[in-house]
Amino acid sequence: MSFNNKSLINKYKDYLPISNKTPNITLGEGGTPLVRSMNLGPSLGCQRLFFKLEGCNPTGSFKDRGMVVAVAKALEKKKKKIVCASTGNTSASASAYAARYGLDSIIIVPSEEIALGKIVQAMAYGAKIIGINGNFDQALSIVRNIVEIMDIELVNSINPYRIEGQKTASFEIIDDLGIQPDFLSIPVGNAGNITAYWKGFKEYFESGKSTGLPKMMGFQAEGAAPIVKGEIIQDPKTVASAIKIGNPASWTGALEARDESEGLIDSVSDDQIINAYMKLTRLEGIFCEPASATSVAGLINLVNNGLDMSEKTIVCVLTGNGLKDPETSQKNSGFSIQTVDPNLHEILKLLKNQK
Ligand code: AN7
Q: For ligand 1, atom 1, which residue shows the shortest CA distance?
């Protein structure tokens, strides 16, 4: 098993709640690229804008960082089953690790609202999928009840091991930059991830790996912005299905990250999300899912409102892969293929017309 020495758990074991009884499992999570913006940043006057490509994780989202620790702890506790509510990515991640390590996974999802690629993943990995005629918040409330009466491990981010694993993304950012960023921009749904990043930044600072702390900038979708509005949203709405959440479980963690870092949590409209999503593909060659683009949409708004970011190091977390939600991409990219006979002349004619 020496190959597993490269695992995320092993790499950051000094910062994680694991012992020699915790199995050192891995599906290749973590170690995701931090790439510098080529065009979008400079067009906003930001010369040091970076994207953390969490869509490069094995199931295509940041959830794998937390899931590997949660599943390792479930195995340590000899659990046989895991359960989660999900807007899609948590369920894809949970069912992959469950399949790999011989656990049953039960996932409870809002039937109508999951992006196609995510539900396809859970099916492929062999999860037991239960759809509800309701939203994520209702699914999570049911899952909280299930674990009271069944011997099953809950792997939503209210499981503290999820937060522990997810904080490793902050470590990687500092390891790659050599210093903490000035600003960290991140989408906020159930608010586990912003909580995790902030914990990670603080721990690295406390252990002398950085010289300061970034300001945390969280962004919710306008129709699903309970933290911004300061009240639970009963019927959240947004094109960014991953963050269609009206009552975030880690609400307090998000407020702490905002206030302790002197950052902000704001909202962006669906149009702004799609605009940022398209700019990322067309100007950067980066295909993320709509929820992920809220981090960039939020940054664009701040710059348009006059915030001077020209000298700042900014990291936007792109939480999930664009392939997860082909339908939203299809709707927005003018999807059509011109088909002709396999004939050079025909093709040259088309290319000429394009000029
Ligand atoms: C791509 O999968 O909540 O604020 O059930 O999939 O930590 O919830 C997903 C959330 C951002 C928000 N970007 O993170 C789920 C789920 C993507 C996401 C978020 C999610 P949190």
A: 320
Residue 125 · residue 92 · CB < 8 Å = yes
Contact yes or no for 257/263 (Cβ under 8 A): yes
Query: Ligand 1 center to residue 43 CA distance, Å?
Result: 28
Q: Are 25 and 165 in contact (CB under 8 A)?
A: no
In this structure, the dihedral spanned by the alpha carbons of residues 100, 191, 135 and 116, taken in order and rounded to 10 degrees, is -50
Residues 284 and 243 sit within 8 Å (Cβ to Cβ): no
pTM score of the predicted model: 0.97
Q: Which residue CA neighbors atom 5 of ligand 1 most closely?
A: 86
User: What is the distance between the terminal CA atoms of the chain, rounded to a whole angstrom?
Assistant: 57
Per-residue model confidence as pLDDT tens digits over 297-343: 999 999 999 999 999 999 999 999 999 999 999 999 987 888 999 99
Look at the alpha carbons of 30, 36, 38, 43 in this order and tell me if their dihedral is positive or negative.
positive
Q: Which residues line ligand 1 (CB under 6 A)?
A: 61, 86-90, 157, 187-193, 242-243, 289, 291-292, 319-320
Strand partners, 315: 50, 184
pLDDT digits (tens, 9 = 90+) for 77-109: 999 999 999 999 999 999 999 999 999 999 999
Where residue 277 falls (left for φ over 0; alpha for ψ -120 to 50; beta otherwise) is alpha
How far is C-alpha 122 from the geometric centre of its chain's CA atoms?
17
- The residue assigned the tokens 């509510």 is 85
